[in-house]
Amino acid sequence: MIRGPIRIRTLAWILAGLAVLAVVVFAAGLSPIGAAGGHSAAARWILHTAMRRSVAFHAMGTEVPDLSAPGLARLGAAHFESGCAPCHGSPAAPTGGAAQAMLPPPPDLAARIPLWTPAELHRIVDEGVMMTGMPAWPARGREDEVWAVVAFLRKLPELDAEGYRALAHGGPEGSSRGLALPADPPFADCVRCHGTGGRGPDDDATAPGPIPRLDIQPRAALEAALKSYAAEARPSGVMRHAAAGLDAATLAGLAARFAAAPRDPAAALDPAGVDETLLARGREIARRGLPARDVAACDACHSPRGERVRDVFPRLAGQRRSYLEAQLRLYTADPPVAGGPRAELMIQAARHLPAADAAAVSAWYASRAPAPR
User: Fold this and answer.
1) Closest among 350, 364, 353 to 287, alpha carbons compared
2) Which CATH architecture does the domain made up of 271-366 adopt?
3) Other Cβ atoms closer than 10 A to 40
4) Quick one: which of 10, 97, 159, 260 has the most CB atoms within 10 Å?
5) How confident is the model at residue 176 (pLDDT cuts 50, 70, 90)?
């Protein structure tokens, strides 16, 4: 009759004793936290299973964009080379000894990527993984950059060393790889995306993609942008990694170097392949704005004629269409994903611009010949 209550009471005392013992071990610092021995098999299973379940749960419902969009994987590959390969290695170079000693060690991505869906990869790149060396994406709200990395990761398992170099460096013996030397590493970082002349990948001004042309920009605008990225005032995980730690003189030198490069007179977009109605709508917005929606004329600041008084504003004529559309989405997001000395001006100018009109004005500027310097 009394065995049941006694057993319950005994079990309660045992559990209480274990709890007290756990507190004593924790408070006294008796539990080892050294990384020399690594995790036990049970701890590894618990941590990895929890991570996989969490990623799968939080990735549900994520809308995956077109990962085959022109230039998307190229941007992701260029960032991977400087921001990810030092820990994960690449088909062109193995993981370094310091990374291999991390706990847990960074995984071989070529073997692991097929185990994850694009949405799950997005979750990992965007949010990072606790209790590992995998950080969250440094610029919150830059979904476009995260998806660029995912687009590259999906290609990674099929790349050999030559294919990787072609995507991340611009070719196995390309100019950007030749410049990746200690003599000028900041410029080499820029070249991987923007090319030696600032025209973009492979120095082709007409190639579509998310990487902006620099050859059409005045020095003041380039320097202001670089300083904003370096100060983390303008959100960009890609540019933050490239510009962080560079002093003002180096940033000014990079701006001057690209501003002095020969300007390609070609527009980024052939107007013959674009709907005339769309271009006409874009021209109207650029020149007159949308007064009924309180949208100012873009030309008021981004002059198509190249007056030096407006050199602090980036030039839009001849810029890539997909880049312009992506930037407008950032300014019109809720909340806006923007920063820099004139961010508020642009937020106010674009906040009432519908997505269809943003596409139209982007196409219009992309189809124009670049303004003279």
Assistant:
1) 364
2) Orthogonal Bundle (1.10)
3) 9
4) 159
5) very low
